[in-house]
Amino acid sequence: MPVRFFIALLITVVTLSVLYACSSSNYFPAQHPSDAGLSRTRPICVDCHEARSDKLAFADFNHTPTFATTHRSIASRSAQVCNLCHQQSFCSDCHATDIELKPSLKNQSDTFRGMPHRGDYQSRHRIDGRVDPTSCYRCHGNPKTAQTCRPCHG
Amino acid sequence: MNRWRLTSIGCALCVTATLLLAPPLLAAATPIDIQSSTILRFFQRDTLNKTDDNVAPVYEYLQIDTGHANNKGLSFHFYGWGRTDLADGDYYQDNSTAELLYGYLEYTRPFSNLNLRLGRQQVVAGIANDSIDGLSLFSDLGPNFSLSAYGGLPVALSSQQGRSGDHIYGGRFSHHLGSRYDLGLSYQQLSNDGDKEDQQWGIDTAFALPGGVNFSGRSSYNLESDGWGEHFYELQARLGDFSLRPFFEKYDYRDYFASGTKTPNPFAILTQSNEGLTAYGTDILWNKLANWDIGAKIKHFAYRVNDDTATYYAGFLTWHGKELTQVGGELGTMQGDAVKNNYLLSRLFFYWDRPGERQGSFISGDLLYALYDEDIYGEDSSFFASLGAGQRFLKDRLELKLSGDYSVDPNFDSDVRGMLTMNYRFGL
């Protein structure tokens, strides 16, 4: 076992060293400038940025009325861009293993946010689940996140 | 790999990272940002022992962030919640009372995109969107390549016969040409109690096509069941004042719902069905009027084994006023071959920011009505209403929000719920 341990350690040291040496200088800032006032409006990136610069396709990140349900593709490729404006907790209110309060309930009075499962979703989910169970699986597909499913589905 | 070994490797990684990154760790005094959200809810439920039993949970969501938000370097991030029931009933007897959502040490190298995280964290990279206890790293490798890698214990399996023998690891390697093109390959392996549960690889891509058209999507291949689980591809285009997002999705249930013992029901059952789903449709937005969101959605579903179809149609309209003020609505319907899947859904909402020019206040409301073609528990409709109000104090550090909900639906004859939220932000 010590041999495997030191091999793992060596690989880690080499990988980190390579990454440290190769990390590009074409970097994103730590945070979007706070004076843009983004927290009080729904951000449309192209209001200030061009649709596509050499570095980033800003138009892809426009928070359109359907962005809450369509951001999966862009977020899986560009999580570091999301981090410019959103703290991890913003994402964790939906994407975590055990949040108990569904997002639309924890933020009940934020009616302007297009959160899923508003109102009586307990009744509606039996239809949506039959029609497209893949949409349920993305968030409820493991033993911890399926705790809400267990009382009825076993 | 046993737990001791994983712990040893984790400690070794921590020491290694610290040694590598020692100079940046010697930063100046670090600011601490603490955000507390205390939520009191009240409602009544029938439990195994009582009817109309009072339930009054109090939640505390606590978030702690240290480090300079505007600068890169070393930082620490924590977010978790705990709950107690003031009514002291048995409604929550089968639920956990607290959960750490994340708690990690992060280092981001100044003037680069190198990012390291150690601890409990959410990993998003290609096919991965998982919570792990471990190490993750991301970096650009020169101007055209990027690498994400992660490894540790999967939080999702922590409730399954302990954590011994559990592990998750994977990564994403991508090639990109600025914002013109991005092609990523990702891999993930998940083991529970020493048994391999899930092993997938994925491909994701994004292209900028002529005429301002973007093409993006992803596919995933299940190496355990030896088949493609998912294909999801979309175009984003602008035609005059209209924005379009046509998409295509294809799923094979046997390969998409990982078939290991970790897969909970009802998904585990679906892996036996040999069913496949193909869905396609589009979103369309009309961008002519600056203060209005006007759009429509259509999504068509077709099944391989059941050989039937369903289609969801919806239209929405929202007017935007000052800051977050909005009034809007949505009307949608699911129509298909199976009557039991057909319903009509309508929603009206408003959010009045700073009513009467009162700084830091809001009033909001929400109405939902659903009409089902086939009764659910003898009822053919659901009605939900919510009214909320809030006020911020102390230069926006303190926010109080009160909301009340009422619903009549197949599960509840008449349900009234209340919620009081107190958010406080400490900046030290």
Bin the helical content of chain B: under 10%
The backbone outline of chain A, from C-alpha atoms, is: flat
What assembly state would you assign to the polypeptide chains in this entry?
heterodimer
Number of strands of chain B: 23
Low-confidence stretches of chain A: none
Radius of gyration of chain A from the CA trace?
A: 20 Å
Q: What's the tally of helices of chain B?
A: 4
What is the H/E string of chain B? HHEEEEEEEEEEEEEEHHEEEEEEEEE
Percent of residues in helices of chain A: 40-55%
Mean pLDDT over the residues of chain B: 89
Rounded to the nearest angstrom, the distance between the terminal CA atoms of chain A is 40 Å
Radius of gyration of chain B: 25 Å
Q: Largest interface, counted with CB-CB under 8 A?
A: A-B, 94 and 142 residues
Beta-strand segment tally of chain A = 0
The assigned structural class of chain B equals mainly beta
What portion of the residues of chain A fall into strands of 2 or more residues?
under 5%
Task: Explain what you see.
The complex is a heterodimer of chains A (154) and B (428). The mean pLDDT of chain A is 84. Chain A has nine helices and no strands. Chain A has helices at residues 2-22, 67-70, 72-77, 79-82, 88-92, 103-106, 121-131, 133-140, 150-153. With 154 residues, chain A is mainly α. The two termini of chain A are 40 Å apart. Chain B is mainly β and 428 residues long. In chain B, 7% of the residues lie in helices and 63% in strands. Chain B has four helices and 23 strands. Chain B has a 22-stranded antiparallel barrel. The longest helix of chain B is centred in the N-terminal third of the chain and has 18 residues, at 3-20. Chain B is globular and about 55 Å long. Classes of the chains: A mainly alpha (154), B mainly beta (428).
